[in-house]
Amino acid sequence: MIEVKNVTKTIHKTEVLNDVQFNVRPGTITGVVGRNGAGKTTLLRMISGIIKPDQGDISVEGENVFQQPRVKQDIVFVPDSTDALKTYTVKEIVKFYKVVYPNFDEEYYYSLLDQFKFNKSGKIKKLSKGQKALFSLILAFSTNAKFILLDEPTDGLDVIIKKEILQFIAEQVAHKDVSIIISSHRLDELEKMADHIVVLKDGSVDSEVEMETLKEQYKKVQVAYQGEFPQDIIQNLEVLSQNGRVGIVLLESDDEDGEAILQNYAPILYEELPLSLEDIFVAKLGGDLYVS
Amino acid sequence: MRFDTWRIWQEHQPDHWEHVKAFEVNGIFEPNFFGMIAVGVVILMAGFLLGLEKNSKRHDFAMALPFSRKEMFLTKYVMGLAVVLIGYNLSFWLAYFAIYQSEFSQLLAEVDLTNSYWLPLAAYFVIYSFAMFIGTISGEIKSQIALTLIFLVFPQGIFILIGQFLNVHGINFIELEIAEWVFQDLFWFNYLNNLFFDELNIWIPVIAGLVFTVLAIVIYERSPSEYSGEFLMFRSLHPLFAFGIPFCSALLGGLMLSSMAPYNSSDALSLILYWLGALIALFFSWKITKKLLNR
Questions:
Q1: Which of A25, B38, B41, B226 is the most exposed place for a label (fewest CB within 10 A)?
Q2: A69 near B CB under 8 A
């Protein structure tokens, strides 16, 4: 298990992370969601032992990654770029990884390269952008590490390769005993995969939810009123959209006060709509970046 | 080639040969110009070992590997030191055996092999360790190389700069004993010059090299990776550099312009030129420092 306890980090006099706390359970996919600059990459770099927290503690399987760096044999950080690997060939990198990660499965690595029709004799820098992203994942999963940290794994990729990569990750998790942390601002991607979502907002954990229960926690309601749309509702509730007398409101399922406000103005239309993750996060994070 | 020259001198100018033979054979073991190139290579190598990866994603890649920072640093350090040792020994002993198997082998008796071997080696060791130490403070390869070159001559440089400042203002301050120690014992390039071999103490570069190595390990373990790629790894050093760079640049600017004053000109002219040079250098260095530290 990865435990992130009360982690705080200031970089360039800006508090990037503030009292961040969450756990990653074995065999699960955790999505770290947040806008650009929310601290997602910093958090992943900390868990993988690259940068140290100013305060707080990060432990992997009960060991502090900074005091016991050997525990990092069970963590692979896959950054959003393969620049670090570019001088290696597809074969050379195996020799390096076999030394560093004792559980590296060379046979599995080559079988995956065959499956995705990689040229095994070339340098990594010669691969296309999509192939590089896929190659990083193949390399990471071949280590048989218990924890794989993926920083925006599909960022900047076309739809087809993106789908291929997400499918690959899902297959790997199904077949291996591995926990994954994926940082992304793409809710549509995480919605399909993640078991657990941590929402970062301005460096703090805004909310932490289990996907199974998330949709049960909220409801989306379309309401219309006889007269003008009540200002009370706009000011006090999460209004996802409003057009004239009609509005769509997001409520927590057990928010009786919110429900009372809606009913107080005697709606002429009250209808529950199907809820998507995007609705929740747009409302919770107050932005429109979380589009699919 | 050198042997041919020696043979010609031996045959045609025996008196001259007698006079220069000891100097000539000692010159073979003196690093001289190639020693300076070797120093450049050593500084560059330290840059490649530490600074280069900080300019790229390779730093993150390296820091995420399951090794302690001490292991990472020592691996790099030992690799670089091995290159220095192997390169130096190869060149030294090849030269030795080339002479040993020639008709000039008796000239080896004229060479103080202990000093000729150990003093330059100690110089390479301290310069390499110093370059690695600076590499732990600096945030990328260019700043590492620039700061290494500057701080290698800093003790002597600051002496000269302050000396000129005081001289121009009519004060003579140089304490000779301290100056001798700074200019002779702490100027590592002297250990590459056989003119100074008899006056130098080998333990000074050895101890300095060990101190730089220990400091480098301690600092590398504590260096914050979030600032890799910047001018300096430690934000706490910014005020020191924000003051130090313009201050030293102003002194250098003053020295350069005041030294352009004609020999027989008045002290007032030197003083005016000094302050003009200092202010110009201060202005530009302040601009550059701000840019460097705010990157």
A1: A25
A2: yes
